Amino acid sequence: MSTVTWPDQTVSDALAAVQATSPLTYGLTNYISAPLAANAILAVGGSPAFGALPGGIAHLATIASGVFLNLASLITDTYDDLRTAARAAHDAGTPWVLDPVVVGAGIAQHDAFAAELLELRPTAIRGNASEVLALAGGASTSKGVDATASTEEVVDLAAALARRTGAVVAVSGEVDRITDGTEVVAVPGGHPWLPRVTATGCALGGLTATFLGAGTAPLQAVVAAHAVLAVAAERAAPHARGTGTFAAALLDELSLLRPASQ
Amino acid sequence: MSTVTWPDQTVSDALAAVQATSPLTYGLTNYISAPLAANAILAVGGSPAFGALPGGIAHLATIASGVFLNLASLITDTYDDLRTAARAAHDAGTPWVLDPVVVGAGIAQHDAFAAELLELRPTAIRGNASEVLALAGGASTSKGVDATASTEEVVDLAAALARRTGAVVAVSGEVDRITDGTEVVAVPGGHPWLPRVTATGCALGGLTATFLGAGTAPLQAVVAAHAVLAVAAERAAPHARGTGTFAAALLDELSLLRPASQ
Amino acid sequence: MSTVTWPDQTVSDALAAVQATSPLTYGLTNYISAPLAANAILAVGGSPAFGALPGGIAHLATIASGVFLNLASLITDTYDDLRTAARAAHDAGTPWVLDPVVVGAGIAQHDAFAAELLELRPTAIRGNASEVLALAGGASTSKGVDATASTEEVVDLAAALARRTGAVVAVSGEVDRITDGTEVVAVPGGHPWLPRVTATGCALGGLTATFLGAGTAPLQAVVAAHAVLAVAAERAAPHARGTGTFAAALLDELSLLRPASQ
Question: The CATH number of the domain where C23 resides is what?
Fold first, then answer.
């Protein structure tokens, strides 16, 4: 298992690609996380457009450079909205990210829907340990959006999920673990305040789609998105007094990152 | 009438209970207030999950430690979504909070729906003076989400509402008034910037459900949530230049509060 | 073409009118932008109420002092919700603002709906160059919410749109251009971080409705809203480290503005 952090060359190059192309990232997400996720994408140089616009879902998922589907978007969107987006991304070859929020929390139809979306072959799957564990077929103790299983427990299951679906699978935790089924990359860093700010997971999903949308290869793109958020969190903490100013400082640091080669 | 403020022992104990148990708070709220409300709950140590997930409303209201229903959630949710959540909370014995947003603003079907929800016996009702006045059967001059009646005018009506419904009733204002129909507790503090930041009322509803969810008795839990927000607002003001940094500083102060006994 | 900036007398007077009357601004907007837009309206002294409350849309659009309809609200609202609001505002004589988000991005039914709303005679239309270009009948290269046409290219088309619809038309850009079809006013200022914070365009739509709602004549009100946001952005930048603290500082500056005559 290798360890990758900012400013490793692959991460820096992936950010350079985002800032050079300002890729359009189309997302179906939810009203708790959308503002932070949109601002995170803008901060690194991407261009976000969110929401199930009537008549526009397939179009936006087709013309976008990357798509992310957060299953908590179902609080306002329909199953068909998400199916339409996933299918359009799949058919157009747009890389897309599945964020399996609330999977494994005991809602059978929700879990079944997540399993169905796997057939449309997400480019990446990003969740906390409980969600990935549940999606991979293990038991879960999640109570909604919380991570209660440890990262380590799920790396093997994540790799199996990656091999089965063809997706790069990322498990967020104190140390993030990212795998394509063969290789496993660890991304340390971050900060204890990160899980105490709502929507940082969704922001990571949006960043992942943005890095994929800039043309970087899947494993490197997913790793880069995680490494960028981790370093931004580390750098934000000294500028913050608590979780409120930490959220603003996190966006600051994302907006201040520049590729090493510039 | 007694007066309670941070760090009175009951308030400190109620916060200690939240931080010891990290209760799951399930909320149906709206896209204006959700981010601040979720971050306020996370800041004090709770665990928020929001939104009308298909097939998940009754489940989440049942497994949650506390539930809050903000009537402005009707801008994206249905009457049945809220009925389902209130009924599940009622049947499971989950304490739940009704935030009667926009009641009394002249929308008859909205006011009727609020009255209907009272039959499912909220543990607490929290609103501004106009909303509580309208819910209690008085006239109202509210123009939506504004407080235009004074707190003092409605204390008697609030106590009558508490006796009729069995709920603890909280009226937000310059000095908050909280009553179980017998006792009336005043919670002073706060700051003039508080009503100039959107969603602070909804955040208070979410905090109230979180403190109830940690097992503190209803009157003490509702008072504690109000006292905690009031002291956080007072402490935030010196760190802020205007209403924008005040919102971030408010979350900071919520995240920095520690029970006196620790 | 004249140039207007804060603290020109007309802008200062328009802000004084807002702060004297605290007008109710009713908006249909979306879950990405609502928090910032609501906070911007509150910061200048207005009173926001957002969302398609069942049975309340026509009522709120009628009793409000100003209305703004952001077409991205269609991610949760229906065409009929927006029609109802626009028609009620039109019939009640409530000034209303159309923000043609995503028009010209290649979604035919969306563009057709925007054209239909023009028949209900918005008081003001506010968008970026691509959106106004598309609404005015020109070609567009928009990829969603981005501005890719220059402001200058569209001033002539904006003036023609203003003459055709009777609306004041505002085109946001490095220098904003605002026209009633005869006169063209330039509003310079702002900051490069402004388009890198999500929802600043929507906030401008909300501020425009708020300034109209305070009774200032349309051209002056639209110009004032743009000048106020521009000066707030300029003043915010020195207090910010990046785009996160810039968003908070922007609200600070809006909340600190006082009319020159006070």
Answer: 3.40.1190.20
Instruction: Name, in order, each residue with C-beta under 8 angstroms of C88's C-beta and a sequence gap of 6 or more.
Output: C57, C58, C59, C61, C62, C94
Eight-class DSSP state of A71: G
pLDDT band at C260 (very low <50, low <70, confident <90, very high): confident
- Smallest CA–CA distance from C45 into chain B, residue: B196
Q: What is the pLDDT of residues B32-63, one digit of tens each?
A: 999 999 999 999 999 999 999 999 999 999 99
A residues 228-257 closer than 8 Å to B (CB): 240-245, 247-248
DSSP summary character for residue C193: T
> Is the Cβ pair B50, A32 closer than 8 Å?
yes
ipTM of the complex in this document:
0.94
Within-domain flag for A147? yes
Strand ranges (E), A4-52? 24-28, 47-50
Q: Is A52 inside a domain boundary?
A: yes
Residue C233: its pLDDT value, please?
98
Instruction: Kindly report the number of other CB atoms within 10 A of residue C91's CB atom.
Output: 12
> Are C56 and B113 a contacting pair, CB within 8 Å?
no
Q: How far apart are the first and last CA of chain A?
A: 29
Please check whether residue B262 lies inside any domain of the structure: no
- Domain membership of residue B56 (yes or no) is yes
DSSP 8-state class, residue B239: G
Per-residue pLDDT tens digits for A39-71: 999 999 999 999 999 999 999 999 999 999 999
- By the CB < 8 Å criterion, does C88 face chain B? no
Question: What is the number of structural domains in chain B?
Answer: 1
Interface test with A, best of B29, B53, B67 (most A CBs within 10 A): B53
Asked whether the beta carbons of residue A56 and residue C102 sit closer than 8 angstroms, the reply is yes
Cβ–Cβ of B243/C55 closer than 8 Å? no
Q: Is A73 in CB contact (< 8 Å) with chain C?
A: no
**Residues spanned by the domain of C25:** 2-256
Q: Quote the pTM value.
A: 0.96
